[in-house]
Automatic annotation (TrEMBL):
Pfam families: GGDEF. It comes from the Bacteria. Coiled coil: none annotated. CDD domains: GGDEF (cd01949). This is GGDEF domain-containing protein. Residues 219-350 form the GGDEF domain. The chain crosses the membrane at residues 16-36, 42-61, 68-88, 94-111, 118-142, 148-167. InterPro entries: Diguanylate_Cyclase, GGDEF_dom, Nucleotide_cyclase, Rev_trsase/Diguanyl_cyclase. SUPFAM superfamilies: Nucleotide cyclase. SMART domains: GGDEF. Keywords: Membrane, Transmembrane, Transmembrane helix. PROSITE patterns: GGDEF.
Amino acid sequence: MRTELTRSPRLLAPSIYRYATVGGLLIHLAFVVFFHLLGYSFMAWVNIGSTVCYAAAMLILKRERMGWWGCLIASELLIYAVTATVYMGWNAGFHYYLFFVLYGAYVMQTSKQATRTFVILSVIAYVLLYHYAPAGMASGVVPVCRTLHYWNLISTLAYTTLLSYYYRQSIEHTMANLHDAIQELELLSRTDPLTGLRNRRMIYEKLQTARLRHETDGEPFSILLADIDGFKQVNDRYGHNCGDAAIKHCASLIRNTAGAEALAVRWGGEEFLVLLQGIRLQEAVTLAERIRVEAERQPFRYEGQPIPITLTLGVAAYRAGQTVDACIHLADVALIEGKRAGKNRVVASR
């Protein structure tokens, strides 16, 4: 079976990998001393080999090769559990490490194929050890076997609990980040990237809400459509970068002049739409005129060169029984009329 090593997304905080690796290294160092004092030189050498594996795992962690790290740790646990159980006996409790491999394989940074491989090998090893491993030590004292059994049981449970805790914390953190990312994407889907104004998708929802409020509570609302005069000539003469800068300038001007209660959006190209809730036609015309005057008065400069920018605006108030599109159409007709009449003016729908 071919085992692939992939750099999958990190499931846990980097600290837990370091803690687990350092903890495993220290445990095996302690086992080296423990088995040496008991006279089990073979197990002492086995733990020296495991210590080397954990030292290598630390180097792999520094390079952030998480797939290799997971496979190395899982392999060490699997081989060590089998070797120690065969040599020391089932009652020493080293077979518990196989449960840790079963659990850890799913949260370590290994590929799906590697995870399946370690799970299958762990199950096979556990069944074979259960049937064929000796019950007690090859030679030794029963209290030592009992001490090892409790130590291996407690350490496996402790590591599993710790890993579960960090895994849950990581999942909660990931879900919080995912929620924030979804909200940000939702905002981006409703925002024009050039001007920072909302786009058509957003305004249609607000327009429908305003229409329903008018139908139920009688609250008025009006629509302004503003278009940059001579925008094609600006683009042709000064380039598209200048055209984009002019659009941003007008977007900022409209947003600031209309005020916080108004909702300004980029309707398309060099055209803007402003929703004025609670505003009747005459008040909307007055605001549109103020926007027009500000556009004429405030200088627009591109690369230090002043470029005259003016706006033509069409205004329409929503009428009972209309559709939202019909109201927008009336504002658009007024805008076209203003363009034909010489631009740089405000025209109210009839």
